């Protein structure tokens, strides 16, 4: 899934007001983190994930790995927070951040 620059800008704007829903410790990706991220992406489509990894390069690698495993797009990174997007097959209007925020 490849998004245009305009789509990424719009998603970054929508993601600005979101709070992280998944937290990744310095131990890296576990099966539970991947499952929770996958569930959150299916429910909300656009989510923030907070990474508690001190090494910047390792943190960036883990972010890329999580996006690849969950078949999501890493939209934006600021500090310890990554913004992830994956379009849901059947979005729930009550849970989807995209529909709720008017995307």
Automatic annotation (TrEMBL):
UniProt KW Transferase keyword: no
Origin: domain of life: Bacteria
InterPro entries xref list: RNA-binding_CRM, RNA-binding_domain, RNA-binding_YhbY, YhbY-like_sf
Domain CRM stretches: 1-97
One Pfam family of this chain: CRS1_YhbY
Gene3D superfamilies recorded: YhbY-like
Keywords linked to the UniProt accession: RNA-binding
Protein name, as recorded: Ribosome assembly RNA-binding protein YhbY
Species, as recorded: Balneatrix alpica
């Amino acid at each position: 899934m490849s998004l245009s620059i305009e789509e990424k800008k719009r998603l970054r704007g929508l993601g600005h007001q979101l709070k992280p829903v998944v937290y990744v410790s310095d131990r890296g990706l576990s099966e539970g983190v991947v499952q929770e991220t996958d569930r959150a992406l299916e429910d909300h489509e656009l989510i923030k994930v907070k990474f508690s990894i001190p090494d910047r390069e390792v943190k960036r690698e883990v972010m890329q790995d999580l996006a690849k495993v969950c078949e999501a797009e890493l939209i934006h990174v600021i500090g310890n927070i990554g913004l992830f997007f994956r379009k849901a097959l059947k979005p729930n209007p009550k849970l989807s951040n995209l529909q709720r925020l008017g995307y």
